[in-house]
Structures are given as structure tokens and as C-alpha cells.
Amino acid sequence: MKALARFTLLIGLLLTALSSQAEPLPLDQLSQQLSQHPVVRGPFVQEKHLRALPQPLTSSGTFVLAADAGLLWKLEKPLKQDYRIDANGIAKRTADGWQMQPGRDVAAQQSKLFLDVLKGNHSGLARNFELQLSGDAKAWTLTMTPTSLLLKQVFSRIDISGGELVERIELHEVQGDRTLLRMPASVAGDDLSAEERSDFAH
Amino acid sequence: MRTEHALIERRLPRLFAVLLLALLALTAWQWRNGPPVAASILALLPSGAGDARLQQAEARMQEPIQHDLLVLVGHPQRERAIALAGELGSQWRDSGHFGQVRWQLDSDLDALRQHLRESRLDLLPAADRRLLIERPDAFIEQRAAALFDPFASFSLLPPEQDWFGLGARAQQALNFGGRVQPDLASGVLLVAEPGMTWAVLHLRSRGDAFDMQSPLVIAQGIAAARQGVEAESGQLLATGGALYAAAGQHKAMSEMSLIGGAASLGTLLLLLIGFRRPRVLLSLLPIGVALVAGCAACVLIFRQINALTLVLGASLIGVAADYPLHYLSKSWGHAEWRSWSALRSTLPGLSLSLGTNLIGYLALAFTPFPALTQIAAFSAAGLIGAYLCSVCLLPAWLNGMQLRPAPRLLALATRTISWHGRLRQGRGTYWLLALFLAFCAGGIWQLHSQNDLRQWLGKDPALFAQSQRIVELTGQQPTSQFFLVRASDEAQLLQRQQALGARLDGLVGNSQLRSYLSLNQLLAPTEQLQATRAALRALPEHWQPLLDLGIPADALQAELQQLLEQPQANLDQALASPQAEPWRALWLGRDDQGVAAIVSLQGQTDSAVLQGAANGLDGVQLVDRLGELNRLFAATQVSAAELKLISCLAIVLLLCIPFGLGGALRVVCLPLLAALASLACLGWLGQPLTLFSLFGLLLITAIGVDYAILMRENIGGPAVSLLGTLLSAVSSWLSFGLLLISQTPAIANFGLAISLGLMFCFLLSPWAAPRHTAQVQP
């Protein structure tokens, strides 16, 4: 429970949940719909709503999700910082190039899981959440309620919604804070750019 | 005179019968609660020289070795590994054999949060504290960045309770360390490697791992669990003192029955072939008496008997069988052999033998090794029992038996003696002596000694491989090395530990040490807290980046105030929190001299490096038990040699009474030469000289004197005496020599040294006879 990359965990959970849920047809369809694109990129806005603050802590940037390589997360405001998640774990960009983040094993575990899911390796984290899907393929909402002991003490609920792609993720923490992640203008693509490829390569 | 003899012959057996009954009753009482046998090899090692505090610390460090078991259940499928761990864990928890079974992370996050909030200043790792004090700007900037970092470590404390991120940083200190990480869903502790997921279970046994029953039960439980896991195509690894104890116990028992059985059978055949009368087998009785007496004496003195003592003690069979042979072998000389008169004629020699054997064995008792002290007690009691049985009871039972020993053996002995007589007449002896000494010099020149404890305890290879694998997987490698830190009070203790910790951090930094646990990681020394608080007071000058994020100044001010005013916990409070469990065992408490605590280490480290870390620090002492033992072994070799000389001197004094100084010297020099030749043989064979082989040679001087006495006394003529010596040597070899097959290197090495010694003792024994008898007798 030491380190938990919320976002990674989340997408991991989402895709796992979707791809391992065998029974209702809409979930399967959604899973297929979300995993059919080799590359997805777009801007993001993250809002941390803390009980103690009148305004949320807002940050923004862009992301690139590549089915066979991993995730690039480029924070631009209020400070610039690039992150990369791949099979090896989480890396931060420094002046000397990518630097693996040490001691974040759970995060690494989650990121591995996440990438496994992207490649179609099903895993069973769905058993830790109760899933409720509503809406149609153009506008859907998935509500995930944790059932496992540890996750229950961290999240009260996770809501994910979108259309063609995931557009909005909201984490409700047990202690009353909440994090909203918006990806309003994601675009599906077929290929990585040369620069992105080199980011994943080194 | 005759009636007096008859009276003694009638009374002695009765007297002995009473003694024997008392002995049997004592033994039955000692075994009333099951066998009083211990299997701990550790108990046989000398306790370290040191004061009560040091011994307390050592006992504390031993505890996990004795009680803890680490089990890893692996399966290619993560889910199956988790499920298997759950099944085994609840099964073991319900079995009642374990005081504690843990395979899931304690999931009470609220308690963890509470603890973190209260003690984050204490728990703050050294590097983070330095950053806060020396570069507060960087500290604040990092915090600001972390608030936006979507991949930042999950923090137990929400941001509004931890604006400066002290809690998030302190959380690292409560980390499990190594590669063990909990599964987020189930809380099961896992180690992942490609193609395999391992679930980790910690077991703590209820009783002492080294009492006789519980290790066996635990080992059986683990074996059953392994079968179950393997049936589901998983794997199970286990390590722990109990398992080593069970394996050692099992091996000791099977070796004892094999060696004891083979020795008894061999001695039985030897008697039948030599004397050709089934009734002569009664002379095996002293062996039984010896074993019972030895056991009873050990339990009486040490409250229990060690399995290793039993194995080595089983070799006593050969020596115990020697006593009846003393008078039985005289049947070759006399046409009409009568048990009581044969005993009368050999009684002085027999008693001398007992005396010299006792001196040899008791010399072992003065070494600082409980193992050898116990063996000495066992053997001394056993020998006295065997002697009494041979002298008091056996002649009565053999009374009236007509012995017709195999004549061919005597003819052979006669030929040998006459050949030897011719050799002694000329210059042959001197040439032989020169050759012999050259052989010895050559061998001893090649001799090397070996004093590494680990090499001669002979760990079970399968268990050892599992332990290695577990170290590899979990990254947890507890060592027997540790630091003992003493101080006059708690404040000073924490300060001293901090000074040591600073040096150890350096070693961890350059990978010379994996990690360490110290109380000052849980509770910061007062000076350190003051420095941290001073840095916190200056923080408002640097916290602009946090204000820029929109965090209200009064929120920051409130948290700062809370941090500054928080009361300082004392050690007892800090240790009482549930998260302090790993540190709890480190605290040794207060006594008249002050307080003390352990700093425990992970990972194998050169003891010179660790010594360097302790150098110049007051109250800090490196305790390196293994290294200390190995050094002690080396030193003891010297003292063993001294003991050998002293025991020889004692034997010479004893033998002066019957043989005079010249005769006594001759009788003692022969076994010494035999010991020298055995040493040389070890050298030629490329075998190391260990402490155990040295002790074997120590025994050889005692046993060899026995043979020399037999030859010197010359009752029934030199050929008869030689035959008696041969029978003795063969029966001794049957027991000692069979130790050669032991899988424990220490015991096998002991067996080899004794075998060689026995051979040379026999070969040299004819020279014990005075020159004239050798010439006169055919």
C-alpha cells in the first residue's frame, strides 16, 4: 500500500475490469471499443479537490497512450514534468534523461498490470470492484465501488465516463477529497511520432 | 584366601545389581516425559565471553532464529499463489502450533495514519531531514511538485494534514523493505518474479524450536503443505531454525542407529569368531550399561542430552567392549580359563585402562566447548558403568564357561611377535623410526587447518538451497552480526545510535550493507528534533511556492504550529505503537548500568567494515558471533594441544606406579607417536585438521595407552597380549571408525582421525613390551 499511482491504477482497473468481465455484453463491447486503437493522445486537466482548499489544485498537460509501448504523461502547468510508464515501471524525465523511480513497487506493479491489460492479458482485479455500467456506446458511465479491504479504505467510489474514448475519471477518496481527471479532446491514431518513439525507447 | 574370594565373588554381582536397578530407575524417571533429547547445535557452542548485557542481546538475536519460519508459496498464476497462501495461513493459524501466523498486511489504515501523524518528525529519514535543514527551498519545491505528480507515492495522510509532505516522506521509513509488496486487493504479501508469484508467510512457533517434538511436527506440517502446493503445480520454499533442527535431529537419530547398530553387530561377530561360544556374547552387556549410565549422567548434569552427544557417544560402544576383552583374550594363554581368576590377573591392567581413558576423556571437559564437555561427561560415566559391569557382574555370568578360542588367531599373533622380535634385535627399530619420522615430517608439512564453523556443521543442502533462494527473492538476509549500543539513559542511547546510523547509512549507500534497523529510526534524539523544529520555524520564509498553488497561509501556519507543539513521545510509547513491531525486539531495557539496544543488520557484510563503523563511537560494540567462534576455534586448537600434553603428563604419573618412569614414558610415547603419524596421514590425504580431528587425537592418546598397557603387562605372553590388543583395536574401530560415514563433516573428520590413530596405536603397541620379554618369548 506504500505507493499507488492513482491514475495508472485507475486505467488499469478500468481496462481489467472491462476485459475480464465476461457476462454482460455492453461491458465487453466497451472493452473492445477502448482497446482497438494502437495510439491515443490528447490534452488532460487534473483537478484535486481538497476539503481544506476553496479552489482545486489544477494541473494540465498532454498524454500519449501507446498500446504496445506504454504511457507518456507530460505535465505542463503549473510546472513542467514528464512521466513515462512502461513494462519497467515509472520513470521521470530529468536533465540526464529518464530516471526510474525507485521504491515504488506497487506503482510499478500497477503499471505492469496496466500494460498487460493493454496487450490483452486479462487479470482479475475486477473481483475487487463492483461494476455498474450505464448509457450507450456514445455516452457511457462506469461506476466502480471497491469491495476489497484495502481499497475500500482508500476510495469510496470511482466514476469513469466517455464516448468513443475515456473522457472523465473521478476518484472519490474516503477522507473526502476527490480527484477529477478530464481528457476532453483525445484523438485515436495509428502510429507514434519519431519523438514519442524515442521517448519510449530510452 | 579362597573363601574370601568366594565371598567377594558372591557379593559383587549382587551389589552391582542393586546399582544397576537404581540406574534404571533413575533413567525411567528422567524419561517420564518423553526423551530428554535436544537437537540444537547452537546449544553446544560455547557461550560468548561477555557480560550479562551482551548475553541478553545474543539471546534476543537468537530468538527469531529459533522461533521464526519464513515460507514462500509460489505459483505461476498470481491468483492461485494468493489463494494457496490464504489456505495454508488459516490452516496453520488454526493448528495451534504457531503463536503467530502472518501473510496479510495489517489493513487498519486508520491506525497507521494516526501513528504517522504523531511521529512523522521522528520517522523522517536522514536524507529528507538534511534536505529540510540545508535546502528548505528545494524541500518546498519538491513538495509542490509532488502535489501535482499523478504518479507520486500514495500518501496515507491527506494533503491537508500533511502540507509539507513530512508524513509522505516518513511513510518510507515504515516500508517493509526488500522486494516484498502487498497485493492491493487481498493484502497478501507478494514477491513477483517473471513467470512466478510468491506469497510470503511469516510463522512464529509457540515452543522452543529446539525442543525435541515441535521441530518434527513443524517440519512434517511444512512437508505436507509442500505436497499440497506441488499437487497444484505450485512450489513451496521454507526456512527457519525449526526446520534445520528437525533435519539435524532426524540425521542424528538415523546415524546413531546405523553406527550403533553396525558397531554392535560387528563387535558381536568379532566375539563369536574369536571365542566361538555364544555365551561370550554376554560381554556385550557392558555396552548397554555404558550407554544407559552415560545418558543418565548427562541428563543429571545438563538436564538434557544433545543429539550430537548421542551420535558421538554411540562410539563408546567400542571402548566399553574392550574391558571384557581384557580377560576374555587371556583364554588363549591358559589351557583352563576361569572367569574370576582371569579377572584377578587382569584387574590392575583393567583399572589402569579405566584411569587413562578417564584422563583422556576428562581432558575434553576442560575445553570451552559445551559439546565436548557433554561428550566427556557421557563417556566418563559410561566407562565407569562398563568397568563396574565388567568387573562385578560379568565374571559371575561367565563363570564355569569353557572357552575354546580360535587357535589360528593365536598362531598368527605368535608369528607376528616373533617377526617383530627379530626386527627389534638388530638395528631395524632405528631404521624404522627414522623412516617413520620422515613420513610424519612430510605429512605434517602438508597439513592445513580449517576453522570455519559453517563448513563443519554440515547444513542440510536442500534446506540451505531454499534459504538462499528466499534471501534472493525477499531481499531479507538477517545476519548474526549486530551492534550493541549502551548508554546511561535513553536520550544518550538515541544519540549514540544516530551517530552509528550516520555511518551505516554510508555503508548502505555504497551497497556494502543491505539495510539496518535501529531505534533512532523510530524515535529521533532530542537534539535532532530540535534541529528539525528550528528548520521548520524558518519554513515560512521559503513556502511561497505552496502559497502560489492556492494553499491558504493559515492552513500552512496551523500545520506548522501543530508540528512544533507536538509533545515528544518517549521510547515506551513509540515502541507500543503497532507499527513499531520490527523495532520492539531491539530494545533491551534498563538495568543498573543504564540502557542498551541492538542495531540489527541485513545482508552479509565483511566484519572488518562493520568494525570500522563502530570504531571511535562510545558505547557501540560490534558483536560478530560467528567470526568470534571461528577465532575461538583457532585459539582452542592451541589450548587443546596443551591439554593433550597435560593429560599425557597425568597418565605418565599414573603409570609410574606400576611400570616405573622408563616404562611409563615408553607406554605414553607410543600413542603420542601414533597421534603424530595420524596427523601426518591427514596431511598426506589432504584432509584438514579441524578442532574435532584434534580432539579425536586427544582421545587416541588415552586409548592408545590402553593398548600399550595391555602389551606391557604381558599377561599370558606377548602373543596373547597382541591378540587382545588386536581385538580391542578392531572393536574400537568398529565404533569410532564408523563415524567416518557420518554426513556431518565435523563427525566424519573426527572418525577419520580416530581410525588412523587406532591403526597406528595397534602397529606401534608391540614396542611397549620390555626388550627382554620380546626376546625370551617365542
Question: What's the β-strand tally of chain B?
Answer: 13
Shape of chain A: globular
**CATH level 1 name of chain A:** Mainly Beta
Give the class of chain A from helix and strand content and strand pairing: alpha+beta
Q: Please state the CA-atom Rg of chain B, rounded to the nearest Å.
A: 35 Å
> What's the overall average pLDDT of chain B, rounded?
81
Number of strands of chain A: 12
Task: Please render the helix and strand layout as text.
The complex is a heterodimer of chains A (202) and B (778).
Chain A (H helix, E strand, L loop, with lengths): L5 H15 L4 H11 L3 E11 L7 E10 L3 E8 L3 E6 L2 E6 L2 E4 L4 H14 L10 E7 L4 E7 L2 H4 L2 E8 L3 E8 L4 E5 L4 E3 L4 H8 L1
Antiparallel strand pairs in A: 1-2, 1-11, 1-12, 2-3, 3-4, 4-5, 5-6, 7-8, 8-9, 9-10, 10-11
Helix pairs in contact in A: 1-2, 1-3
Chain B lengths: L1 H29 L6 E2 L13 H16 E8 L2 H18 L2 E5 L6 H15 L2 H9 L1 H13 L17 H6 L9 E2 L6 E5 L2 E10 L7 H19 L3 E6 H35 L9 H18 L2 E2 H8 L1 H13 L10 H27 L4 H29 L8 H19 L2 H19 L6 H5 L3 H14 L3 E10 L2 H20 L5 E3 L8 H12 L6 H5 L4 H13 L5 H6 L4 H4 L2 E5 L2 E9 L4 H8 L5 E5 H61 L5 H23 L4 H19 L8 H20 L6 H6 L2
Parallel strand pairs in B: 1-8
Antiparallel strand pairs in B: 2-6, 2-7, 3-6, 4-5, 5-6, 9-12, 9-13, 10-12, 11-12
Helix pairs in contact in B: 1-10, 1-14, 5-6, 5-20, 8-9, 9-11, 9-12, 9-28, 10-12, 10-14, 11-14, 12-13, 12-14, 12-28, 13-14, 13-26, 13-27, 15-28, 16-26, 26-27, 26-29, 27-28, 27-29, 28-29
What is the gist of this entry?
The complex is a heterodimer of chains A (202) and B (778). Chain A has 202 residues and is α+β, with helices and mostly antiparallel strands. Chain A has helices at 6-20, 25-35, 105-118, 149-152, 194-201, and strands at residues 39-49, 57-66, 70-77, 81-86, 89-94, 97-100, 129-135, 140-146, 155-162, 166-173, 178-182, 187-189.
